[in-house]
Structures are given as C-alpha cells and as structure tokens.
Amino acid sequence: MDTNKQIIPEPSIPKEANTNIDEIWQMLSHQDFLIRQKGVRNLVKISNISTVERLIKILNEDSYVRGWAAWALSKIGSDEAITELGKALKNEEQDVRCWAVWALAEIGSDAAVCKLLYALYHPDYEVRWRAITGLGRIFEKPSSKDDREVLNHLLKTVKDEDYYVRSRAIAAIGKLRAKVAVPILSQALYDPEFSVRYRAAEALEKIGDSEAVSALMQALQHDDSDVRSSVIYSLAQVNSQLGIDSLLKALRDPESKVRAKAAEVLGKFKSNEVINALLEALLDEDFYVRWRAASALGEIGSEQAINGLVEALKDKNPCVRGAAASALGQIGSKSALSGLWRSIKDKDYYVSKRVAIALKKITAKSVASKMIANQSQQSNLPNILITSYGEAGEHILCPNRGPLIKHLISIASPGVDLPEGYTNVPHRLRLEFDDIDIPHNDPEYVLATPEHIRKVINFVSEVSELNGHILIHCQAGISRSSAVALTVCAQLLGAGKEKDAMEIVMKARPQAMPNLWVVELADDALGRGGKLLEVAQGYQG
User: Fold this and answer.
1) How far, in Å, CA of 36 to CA of 40, rounded?
2) 439, 98 contact by CB (below 8 A)
3) Angstrom distance (rounded) from CA 187 to CA 158
4) Any idea what the Cα angle at residue 135 is, between residues 130 and 138, rounded to 5°?
5) Hey, is 453 helix, strand or coil?
C-alpha cells in the first residue's frame, strides 16, 4: 500500500536552538555567509512587515544568501512579501529577478499568480520561462483554482520568439491537460527545434484524447525523421492498440534511429505480436536497432524470446551480444544455460561479464538472509538496504531477496519513473525532491520540505510495528537515500543514539554522504537539537 497518512503534526521550519531576535539580527550581519544563511532561515519564525523588508534587502544585495532570502519570503507568503517580490521583477540584476519569480511560484496564491502572469511578458526570456514553469507547477495539482485565464496566457507564449520559452510553455500546458490546446500542440510537433517538438508530443500524450493521439500518429508519417522520432516515446504511453500498431509500424521505418527508438519502447508491451516483431528486429541491418530489440525482449521477460536471444549471442557487435546476455538473465530460464555457457569466454570483456552475471542470476541458490547485510543487532531495527535507482529494481525483483523486502522508500526527482518492481513491495512511500541542499532558482528543482520528513516519520511509525526489511533508494544511493535512512534509524533507535544511527547507515552504504538539508529537517522534526546534523556533517567528504 502507498502511505501518506498523517499521524503527527507537521514539523516546523528548522531553527537554531535558543535563538532570539537580537541574535538573529547579529547573524544577518556576520561575515560568514553560512551564519547569515541560518539567520535568514530563522527570520521566518518572526515574520512581520519589518522581516519582509529585511529579506527584500538581502534578496537585492547579498548574492551569497539571496536564495535563502527568496525561500524565506516564499514561506512567509504574505501580501507584503508578494508585493515586494513583484517589485523585484524589475530589478536590474537578472539573478534577483529569477529568484523573485521562483519565490512567487512557491507561494502560488492568487495574488502571486497575478504577478507571474505579468512576468510572462517580461523582456528577459529567463524570467518568462521561469514564470511559465512556475505556473505549470501551481496548476498541475487538482485545486479549486480557475486555470482558464492562465491557459489563455500560456497559449500565447507558445509563439514566443525564444525556443526555450516555447518548450516550457508547451510543457506547462501539458500539465494542465487542456483539450482545447490540442490544435496548437499539434502544430508545435513540427517546430524547427527538437525540444519544442518533444515537449509537444509529451503534452499531447498527457491530454490523451482521440484528437491528441491522432495528432501523434499523423506526426509519425512526417517526411522529417526527426519529427517522427520525437513522438515515439509519447506513443508508447498511449494505452491502446492504436499506439502499439503505430510503434510496430515505426519498427519498419526507413531511418534506423526511428526503428531503434520504437524497439526500445516496445519493451513495455508483452503481446505475442510485439515479441515476434522484436525478434525480427534482432536481424536488423543496424546494430543499434538489434541492441535495443534485445534489451526490450529482456524487459518483456518471455521465454518465447530465448531462442532468438541465444542466437543473438553470436552477433558480430559486442553491444548486441551483451544486451542479449543481459536479457536472458532477466528472463531467468534454465533453457538458456547452454547458450550462455558457450559464450562465457567471449573475446569481449563487456560481453563475458554480462554472460557471467546472467548465469549467476539463473543458477543462484544462495539464501537471501546471507545476501542482505545485517546492519544492526537492535531487535527493533529492521535490516536496511540503501541503494541506487537501478539497484533497487534488482533487489526487489530478485527471487531470493525480493520477498524479504516489505517496506520501500523510493526517492527521486519529480517526473522520474518508479523503480522496477515498485508495486511488488507491500508497504511503500514515494518522495519526489531533488538532491540539493539549498534553494535553486531553476523551478525544475525541488528542495526537500518539512512535509517530506513528516511522511517519512509517519511511515516509520508503521514500519516499527511490522516485520521485514526496508529498502531506501534515490538516484545514486549516496545523498538523499542515506539522509532519509539516517532519519529512519534515528527515529527507531530513539534520542541519544544519533551516532549509532549514523554508523548503521555507513555500514549499509559505505559511500553515503547524507544530504545535510534533509538531515537538518529531520533533526528539527525529531527534536534532536542539532545532534543528528552534527554527526552527519562529520561524514562529509
């Protein structure tokens, strides 16, 4: 089950222990910008008109702390803050304008939206595209806000002279899923810039009605192979036979790059028709098409593909042979063993390594409990796995390890796919934020929030009552996942055990370098008075 149930009150913004107003003012004047940052964060606690004035001054004048000033203003979100941020859009310095747009989008109120609509027509293209992206994020989530006026303005920006602005406008329109925009998005499929075409295809796929799907299919007939290739990934998301038929047709496209993309995305479909088409693509004249076809057959995982993949182990291109070996390992059938053993001494190291891995997967007999490190002898602490995105899928889908994993915290940047086997784990939590520890004025980046940590704490309160191992992953398994794992361990072990919690994390993932902002949020939420943050700082490279 997915869990987002609220159990405890939302934690407050991190603050320095025993910090009073006089100390905050002193911190804001300190020569060390890190201390000034802490002072700015604490201003949120005493938000008033004078606080807003001070933050605006910092936003305009202190480049080292500017991002945190914008962050603090976005947390205050008052009418005064919105008014002053609107004025900052006219600042001569571009960085100030960009941070002002970011803060307005973070606030997201009706008054802030009015300022962002004004920014859509700003002479600076940086301000325009950031305002567009911010509006897309505000209106992406279901709410009572009327998005018709916003949509009308966004439709105008699709014709912006700057291609980057056009692509962001189309992406924002896609988030609104407005069917009225289909004709304009259909035209954008033929924009000279690839990024615009790609975004248009994504937007049409999100809208997903018959008119939008028809536009994607028509683009697959275009004379320009770049246009044809730009719609392949979107057609793969269309859950209909029409979409599959279009992709099968693209698998016979005269351009190899189109065929290769079609082969790659067909791996998500498991019909006999698709398998036979991919087996035929294993004989394509272009090695990249054969490579993608082999990988796709591995994703499908049908024993129907074994003979073709065994034959592909003899392909003249090592990339194809390696992909075939990996695919056979994914399928996991013993009927592939003889073919794999014949290729174990392949002259290419890349291939022989993948053959060995495939053989190990198929013949593995080791007991799962020996494969998972025991991080702690604490009776109330489950075994904890900290992994990368790719490793998470391997653990979950492993026939030995997978069944032991009962809890999953999946951490990724917004829009990144779930790891393979995500729904196989019965008790799971999905968190989406980027691996940053300071505000980033690019609206595509999302900073972790107290709400994210609240969800982790609520999740762990249930984990402690259940059996089974817990897997925590992010993209690389180094920063975000280790910070969340530290939060988990600190909560389960209790106060005063912060160092023990950190040692468990390092034993589970020796390369761990916890994201300090996430740890700071956790420290405050758990009431550790800076102790959790202190032990995490000791493990920074």
Assistant:
1) 6
2) no
3) 10
4) 125
5) helix
Cα–Cα distance between 260 and 295 in angstroms, integer?
Answer: 11
Query: What pLDDT does residue 21 have?
Result: 79
In Å, how far are 154, 369, 496, 522 from 482, measured between CA atoms?
40, 22, 19, 12
One DSSP character per residue, 107-160 reads H--HHHHHHHHHHTT-S-HHHHHHHHHHHHHHHHS--S---HHHHHHHHHHTT-
CA–CA gap between residue 25 and residue 40 (Å, rounded):
9
Residue 144's pLDDT is 57
Whether residue 250 contacts residue 233, with contact meaning beta carbons closer than 8 Å, is answered with no
Cα→Cα distances 186→38, 155, 240, 249, 514, Å: 49, 13, 20, 21, 44
Q: Provide the 10 A C-beta neighbour count for residue 92.
A: 7
Pull the structure tokens for residue 344: 């174990």
Give the CA diameter of the chain.
77
> Which has the closest alpha carbon to 385: 534, 508, 489, 262?
508
Is 230 in contact with 189 (CB distance < 8 Å)? yes
Positions in the chain whose pLDDT score sits under 70: 1-19, 142-145, 239, 364-380, 464-466, 541
C-alpha Rg value of the chain to the nearest Å: 26
Lookup result for tokens 């993309």? 261
C-alpha neighbours within 13 Å on the C-beta side of residue 309? 36
In tens, the pLDDT along 393-449 reads 999 988 888 888 999 999 999 989 899 999 999 999 999 999 999 999 888 899 999
Contacts with 374 (C-beta within 8 Å, 6 or more apart), sequence order = 383
Rounded to 5 degrees, what angle do the CA atoms 306, 310, 316 make?
140
Decide: helix, strand or coil at residue 70. Answer: helix
DSSP state string for 318-380: HHHHHHHHHHHHHH--GGGHHHHHHTTT-SSHHHHHHHHHHHHHHH----HHHHS------TT
Contact status, residue 516 vs residue 488, Cβ threshold 8 Å = no
State pTM to two decimals.
0.75
Distance CA 442, CA 427 (A): 33
Decide if 383 contacts 373 (C-beta within 8 A): yes
State which H helix or E strand residue 94 sits in: helix 94-107
Copy the structure tokens of residue 466: 């259940």
Burial class (CB in 10 A: 0-12, 13-18, 19+), 295: buried
Strands 384-387 and 405-412: what pairing?
A: unpaired
Of 522, 521, 519, the residue nearest 538 (C-alpha): 519
User: Cβ-count burial of 340 within 10 angstroms (0-12 exposed, 13-18 middle, 19+ buried)?
Assistant: buried
pLDDT tens digit string along 346-396? 999 999 999 998 998 888 633 333 333 333 334 457 789 999 999 999 999
Separation CA 16–CA 45 (nearest Å): 11
Nearest to 504 by CA among 473, 535, 534: 535
**Cα–Cα distance for residue pair 481/57, rounded to 1 Å:** 36
